[in-house]
Amino acid sequence: MVYFDNAATTFPKPDEVYDAIMKSMKEYGANPGRSGHKLALRMGREIYETRELLAKLFNIDNPMNVVFTSNCTESLNLAIKGILQRGDHVITSSMEHNSILRPLSSLEKEGVELTIVKGDRKGRIDAKDIAKNIKNNTKLIAITHVSNLTGTIMPIEEIGKLAWKNGIFFLVDAAQSAGVYDIDVKKMNIDMLAFPGHKGLLGPQGTGGLYVREGIALKEIKQGGTGSLSHMLEQPDIFPDRYESGTLNGPGIVGLGAGIKYIMKTGIENIRKHEEELTKHFIEGISKIDKVKAYGPLNVEEQGAVVSINIGDEDSSEISYILDEKYDIEVRPGLHCAPLAHKTIGTFEQGVVRFSFGPFNTHEEIDYALKAIFEISREI
Amino acid sequence: MVYFDNAATTFPKPDEVYDAIMKSMKEYGANPGRSGHKLALRMGREIYETRELLAKLFNIDNPMNVVFTSNCTESLNLAIKGILQRGDHVITSSMEHNSILRPLSSLEKEGVELTIVKGDRKGRIDAKDIAKNIKNNTKLIAITHVSNLTGTIMPIEEIGKLAWKNGIFFLVDAAQSAGVYDIDVKKMNIDMLAFPGHKGLLGPQGTGGLYVREGIALKEIKQGGTGSLSHMLEQPDIFPDRYESGTLNGPGIVGLGAGIKYIMKTGIENIRKHEEELTKHFIEGISKIDKVKAYGPLNVEEQGAVVSINIGDEDSSEISYILDEKYDIEVRPGLHCAPLAHKTIGTFEQGVVRFSFGPFNTHEEIDYALKAIFEISREI
Fold it and tell me: Is B247 in contact with A9 (Cβ distance < 8 A)?
C-alpha cells in the first residue's frame, strides 16, 4: 500500500510516537492539573514538555502561550471568534480551507466585514492585494501558510510585516506547514499560529494547538473546569487555562511531543529536503504524461509536498478509485474542503486528485505512482 | 500504587483499549470521511461502530445523533450554547461541575436567566425544587446524573418527566455515570446527554460525546471542514457533521469503542455491583474511624463510587499529600471544580479528600486505604 494522503493526516507515525502514547497511557494515564498526586504531576510535566518543544520549534518565548486544542480547526475558530467583533474588518484569501472560510462566513452574518483576496491560477496570493484592502477597521489578516490544494507557499513573512506596520493582528494557518517549513513567530510577526498535531508534526489525531502572542486576550469559546481558580464561576483569566477547559488529551499530547522530538532529531531541513525531492520527482514525472493536467506552481521553491492533478476530463473520484482499487495507492479526490481555492484554479466542477507526500514516502513509491498514472491515462 | 482518582479519569484501561488504539494507529491511521480510499473508509467504519455501541448503551435509535467531542466539557458547552438564547431561562443545581456552571454563568451575562436550585447537605437535589422554579420562558434543565463531589445520584428520571410534561429541554451531564449506571435516553426523557470517553466508558483521554435528540437543531460552536458539502461556505446542516468540524480523534474513538465493548462483555451491572461493594466497604470502614468526617449520602443506594472525607480540620491537600507520599495512594483534594457543591455541603474552605473507585480496584486496596486513614488520623 502506498499512502499519499499525508495532507489529511500523516501515516505512519514514527515508532517513538506510538511508544510514547502507550507508555503514557499504561504508566501514568492520570488527569493532569486536576490532582497533586504523582501520576497527575507526571502527566502535567509531560504535557508541559510538549509545550516547550512547540515553543522551541516556533521560536515562542513562553511555552504557556501555547494552547492545546483538539485540532487545527478548533484553533482557528478560537483565534477568529476570540478576536473579531461586530464592526471589525478581516482579510483572508480565496485559497483558504473551510476551517477559516466557514467561521468567517458565520461571523459575516453577525456583522463582521469580510474581504476575500483572490489568488492567481497557480494559487498564489500577492501581499499587495492584501495591502490594497486594508481599511481603518481592519483587525485581522488570516492566511494559510501552505495551500492544502496546490501546495502553494504563501508570502507570510511579507504579509506579517504588512500586518505589523498597520497594527493588524496576523493569524497563520500552519495546517500544511508545521513540522516541515521553518516558522518563526517573531521574525514573521505572527500574532496567532494555528497548527494540527497529526500532520507534519507527526503526532496523533485529536491534537492541535494555537499560539497566542503575549498580551492578546481572546474571548474563549468554551468554559468549564480548568483545575485552576476552581472557586470562581467565571472562567479564569490565566494562560493557557482559560482556553483549555475540560480534560486534555494527555496521551495524545505526549505523542505529539514525541513527534516533535523525532523532527528535531532528524532535522526539519532534512525532512523538508526529502519532501522537496519527492515532490520534484513527481512533478517531473507527470509533466511527461500526456493528458495529465497539473495545478499549482509546479516548482518546489514555491510549493509544499502537495501536488494536485487531473487526467483529461475524467472525474477526480473515478481516478482516485482506480488508484486505490487497482494500484493500492491512497490519494484524495474532490474539493478538499477548499471550495474557493478550487474556483481560483478552475477545478470546482472536476475536483482534483491530490497527491501529498510525507517523511516516510520513497522515490520508489513515486515511480510506482507515475507508472500507474501513465497506465490510467492510456486506458481512459 | 493504589489509584483512587477514577472520577478524574479511569486508570488503568482494559488491555483491549490499548490494543485497539495501537492497531488503529498502525494499521489504518487515516483521516475518516475525508477521502474514499481503503484506510480512510476503514477508519470511518470503525468510528461509526463506536457511534453504534454508544447508541446501544444509551438506547438511542439513530447512531448519527451521537456527536463526538474532545471531552464532556465541550459536549456541555455545545448543548448549553447551542440551545439557549437571550431571554431564555435555565434551571440547574448547586451540585454541578464548573463545566455546567461556567458556560451558564457566561450566558447569564449575555441575558440568559439562570436559576440554581440548591442541594441539601448530602448533595441531594429535590425534583420539587426544580418544579417550583419553572417559568414560562424556561427552556432548559441541566443536571448532573452523579455528583463528582459526593457521588449523590440525582433523580434524573423524575426530572426528565417534569421536563417532558412542561415542554422543557432536558440535558444530563453523565460525567460520573456513563458506563456504570443504566442510562436510557427514551425512558428518562433525556433530550441531550453529555458524556466523557475517558471515565466510566474506559476510553482514552481526548474523547467525549453528546447525544442530541432527533429534531433538535443546536447552533454549532465551531465551523470548518466536515468532509461533507465542501462546496458550501455555510456549515452543513447534517448530523453529526455540523458539530464535528476538523479531524476527529480517530484512534481515540476506536479505543472508546473497545472500552464500551469491554463494559458490555463484562456486564454494566457487574461493574456497578463491584463498585458498589467497594464503596460500601469503604464507607463502613471510615465510619469506624474517629476524626473522619464523611460527606454525601453514605449509602450505595443513593451514591456512586465517589466518597469524600476530611480528617479533623486538617487541610485536604495535606492529607492527600501524605496519602501519596507515605502510602502511594492517589486521591484528589481541593474543590474538584465544583465550588457551589462544596458550599452546599459546607466544605468550601477545607476542601475534601476525594476517593473515587473504578472497575479495577480491589477490596484489598480499600483495606489498605482504611489502614492509612486510620494511621493518619492518629498522628494528626
Answer: yes
Residue A30 has its nearest CB partner, among B9, B25, B235, at B9
Domains of chain B: 15-266 (3.40.640.10), 268-379 (3.90.1150.10)
Query: CB distance B198–A247 less than 8 Å?
Result: yes
Q: Return the residue of A nearest to B242 by Cα.
A: A102
Q: Are B189 and B213 within 8 A, CB to CB?
A: no
Q: Which of residues 33-52 of A touch B (CB under 8 A)?
A: 34-40
> Backbone dihedral region of A232: left (phi > 0), alpha (psi from -120 to 50 degrees) or beta?
beta
Span A180-234, pLDDT tens digits: 999 999 999 999 999 999 999 999 999 999 999 999 999 999 999 988 888 889 9
3-state helix, strand, coil in chain B (%, to 5): 40, 15, 45
Q: Given a cut of 70, is residue A109 above it in pLDDT?
A: yes
Element (H, E) at A264: helix A250-266
Confidence (pLDDT) at A227? 82
Using a CB-CB cut-off of 8 Å, the residues of chain A touching B16 are: none
C-alpha cell at A290: 500526456
Distance CA B41, CA B28 (A): 9
pLDDT tens digits, B93-120: 999 999 999 999 999 999 999 999 999 9
Record: contact B222-A247, CB cut-off 8 A:
no
Number of other residues whose CB lies within 10 A of the CB of residue B346: 11
Rg (CA), chain B: 21
CB contact under 8 A, B206 and A339: no
Q: In B, which residues are within 8 Å of A72 by CB distance?
A: 246-247
The answer to whether the pTM exceeds 0.90 is yes
Rounded to 5 degrees, what are φ and ψ at A78? -60, -45
Mean pLDDT score of chain A = 97
Q: Do B35 and A331 touch (CB under 8 A)?
A: yes
The question of ipTM being above 0.95 is answered as yes
Report the residue of B41, B226, B231, B242 to disrupt the A interface, i.e. the one with the largest count of A CBs within 10 Å. Answer: B231
Q: Which of B35, B204, B227 sits opposite A25 (nearest CB)?
A: B204
Per-residue pLDDT tens for A130-174?
Answer: 999 999 999 999 999 999 999 999 999 999 999 999 999 999 999
Q: Which residue has the cell 461541575?
A: B97
Q: CA A286, A287, A290, A295: dihedral to nearest 10 degrees? A: 80
Instruction: Judge: B77–A222 Cβ closer than 8 Å, yes or no.
Output: yes
For residue range B1-48, what is the model confidence (pLDDT) as tens digits? Answer: 999 999 999 999 999 999 999 999 999 999 997 668 999 999 999 999
Report in angstroms the alpha-carbon separations of B234 from A104, A105, A221: 10, 7, 19
Q: Is residue B228 over pLDDT 90?
A: no
